[in-house]
Write a structure and sequence with these properties.
The structure holds 2 protein chains of 2 kinds. By secondary structure, chain A is mainly α. Chain A is built from 15 helices and no strands. A 6-stranded mixed sheet of chain B has the order 6-7-8-3-9-10, sandwiched between helices. Chain B has a 5-stranded antiparallel sheet with strand order 13-17-14-15-16. A 4-stranded antiparallel sheet of chain B has the order 2-1-4-5, covered by helices on one side. By secondary structure, chain B is α+β, with helices and mostly antiparallel strands. Classes of the chains: A mainly alpha, B alpha+beta. Chains A and B meet through helix 11 and helix 12 of A and strand 6 and helix 4 of B.
């Protein structure tokens, strides 16, 4: 929610001396009012409502909402899913970006297209795919059932769904970056006798670190906030397969507004933290690339 | 250490980058691979370095007699300098130069103190003392190129390979740096092969020039030999300016000399369609037709700015336009103006009739 505000701040102010940009005063005023009004109405006001409702019954009730074992379980599960999905995404993203930018092979553009699939597809479909694959009536569901392995309506299903929806983040961040940087530095390291691992550790990784961190932050935000795909595979078993977004929905449907908003406020805080970190990384990255 | 490549072929799909190329570079020499873009010179350099591999079963690369065709670039004992430097952007100049030493296995790696000593010595050698803590972006283009050179030398290569070493620099720095490279070569005396598309650069600093065109080597030789005795029309045209003229109906002058040359080799005289090549500085302009070789011309334009004078001329016998180059002093003596009539004598011509090639000096009478 703070994102549009940071965008605006990072755009350099137009120099008043350029005649093409000296729009009439009233027009500037109008545009500014419209923008700020929109942000206030659709972004800042709801944000205030989340926290307002969360604290509506007082600070005590707010913190009591987190003492509920189901809430604690939901928070734990959300962090677990993110803690598994994000590192896997880093490995996948770096490997994919490396393969796509440093090697030539057949079907490369097809691979790049497939990376974007989770962005194009509705998260609900993503969840359904896993139900169809691993569910009791799915392709390998009976086999899993026979071996007493539970994926759907259990933690593995939630982790799989989270991985699916977050697949593109790191790879999408790194591919353009690594394409722009080319392979010259890696080749130079090769002529100097460095091994493949040394080249990655000492040349590639330092060059992509800000892009990588940026991708990780976005990936983490999505992993924690994902609702649709996780909702389909979760089965909504309280204290077992509920993540924070699902828990908020359940509380809300039970008219437990205060508790719903309390958990929602925690999710919001995590989102705001992500945005803050993202801005920080952008700022650091801009600084370090200016130095280059 | 010598470099020897034999019968290399390299194709990229339907495109042939190298077509049965063999070359032998003598130890300790500074050799230029010269050619237009797409001639295969960079591909040849990269195959020698091991950054690219020749088509399977198509010959070999030997360094000092040893076949290195199957080795990776790190195992060949080569130093490579990239056209755009390829410095590690996140490392300081010092760390860049030390890189090749610090990635060595522990028992082959010099101690910290030894590395520091070697890097500092190299910084001195490339005249960058005191800049060790800078980042590459804080250096000028010429300085970066010298860091790249020091980094390549740090691993004590037996052969130095440079890809368009001055290609990304502006004209003035380019000139300075190439003289410096020549001097530097005298000092370190390392077998060096560099790629360039700039004939002036190749002719000025190389001991030996390898002219490439269309995936093949056209000619190999010392700069003066290649310039004075080009082996093909391509070499004449690529090395410096040249006028291409038809033998035409010009009975005297060049035609007579060319006739004699052709007669001697082929037993035939030139036909009107045969091609003559004349360097602009081999065109002697006169106000009087004193020689029987003289060809009447009209002055189209006089360019007097610059360190030599240039005159655009038109032959009155065939109507062909061509250029002459002469000293400013001589130009002033002649006092030529646009539209003037004059005569020219070709001092040296080369004749190229269908696949054969002759050259001859034109005798004064």
């Amino acid at each position: 929610m703070a994102a549009p505000a940071t965008r605006i701040r990072s755009v350099p102010a137009p120099t008043p001396t350029r005649p093409a940009l000296s729009d009439p005063r009233w027009l500037r005023g109008l545009l500014l009012t419209l923008t700020l009004g929109f942000i206030a109405l659709f972004l800042l006001l709801p944000l205030a409502v989340v926290f307002g409702e969360a604290f509506a019954a007082g600070v005590g009730a707010y913190f009591a909402s987190f003492a509920d074992p189901d809430a604690i379980a939901a928070i734990k599960l959300t962090f677990t899913a993110a803690a598994i999905a994000v590192p896997l995404n880093v490995v996948f993203g770096v490997a994919t970006a490396w393969a796509v930018t440093k090697f030539e092979f057949r079907g490369k553009s097809l691979l790049i297209t497939f990376i974007d699939l989770p962005f194009a597809i509705s998260p609900v479909i993503a969840g359904l795919i896993y139900v169809l694959m691993f569910g009791l009536h799915g392709w390998i569901g009976p086999w899993l059932d026979a071996h007493d392995i539970q994926i759907i309506f259990a933690v593995p299903g939630i982790v799989l769904a989270t991985i699916f929806v977050t697949v593109p983040f790191v790879a999408r961040e790194l591919i353009p970056l690594m394409q722009a940087q080319g392979t010259d530095e890696e080749l130079a390291a090769l002529t100097l006798g460095a091994s493949g691992w040394q080249i990655f550790r000492r040349v590639t990784l330092p060059n992509i670190r800000w892009g990588l961190l940026y991708g990780v932050i976005l990936c983490n935000a999505r992993a924690m906030g994902e609702f649709g795909a996780v909702s389909v595979v979760s089965g909504h078993i309280r204290g077992m397969t509920n993540t924070m977004p699902l828990h908020v929905e359940i509380l809300y449907n039970e008219y437990n507004l205060q508790a719903a908003f309390a958990v929602a406020s925690l999710l919001t805080l995590l989102a705001l933290l992500s945005l803050f970190l993202k801005s920080l990384v952008e700022w650091r990255h801009a600084r370090s690339s200016r130095a280059h | 250490m010598s470099i020897e490549v034999s019968h290399l072929r390299k194709t990229f799909g339907a495109y042939t980058a190298l077509d049965d190329v063999s070359l032998s570079v003598k130890p300790g020499q500074l050799t230029a691979l010269l050619g237009p873009s797409g001639s295969g010179k960079t591909t040849l350099l990269r195959i020698i370095a091991g950054l690219e591999f020749a088509d399977a079963g198509s010959g070999a690369v030997r360094l000092d007699g040893e076949d290195v065709s199957a080795l990776g670039p790190g195992q060949r004992g080569i130093g490579f300098v990239f056209q755009h430097y390829a410095l590690f952007r996140h490392l300081t100049v010092f760390e860049n130069i030390a890189f090749g030493l610090t990635v060595r296995r522990k028992r082959e790696r010099p101690s910290r103190a030894e590395i520091a000593e070697r890097v500092n010595r190299l910084l001195g050698l490339v005249q960058l003392d005191g800049l060790g803590q800078r980042l590459p972006t804080q250096l000028s283009g010429g300085q970066r190129q010298r860091v790249a050179l020091a980094r390549a030398l740090a691993i004590e290569p037996k052969v130095l390979l440079l890809d368009e070493p001055f290609g990304a620099l502006d004209a003035k720095v380019r000139k300075e740096l190439r003289r410096w490279l020549r001097q530097f070569h005298e000092e370190v005396n390392l077998t060096t092969l560099f790629v360039t598309h700039d004939q002036e650069e190749a002719l000025e600093i190389a001991d030996e020039v390898v002219v490439m065109n269309n995936a093949r080597i056209e000619q190999v030789g010392p700069p003066q030999a290649v310039y004075d005795h080009p082996a093909s029309p391509f070499v004449i045209e690529f090395l410096g300016n040249v006028n291409q003229l038809t033998a035409g109906t010009a009975k005297p002058s060049a035609r007579a000399a060319a006739d004699a040359a052709k007669q001697a080799v082929e037993g035939k005289v030139t036909s009107d369609g045969d091609l003559l090549y004349v360097r602009p500085h081999d065109v002697d302009i006169r106000r009087e037709p004193k020689s029987t070789h003289a060809i009447p011309v009209k002055v189209l334009h006089v360019f007097a700015a610059g360190n030599t004078g240039r005159v655009a001329l038109r032959r009155l016998d065939t109507g062909e336009a061509f250029d002459a180059e002469l000293s400013r002093v001589r130009l002033a003596e002649l006092g030529l103006h646009q539209g003037d009539s004059a005569w020219v004598v070709f001092r040296h011509v080369r004749l190229f009739p269908k696949g054969q090639f002759y050259e001859t000096d034109v005798a004064e009478d």
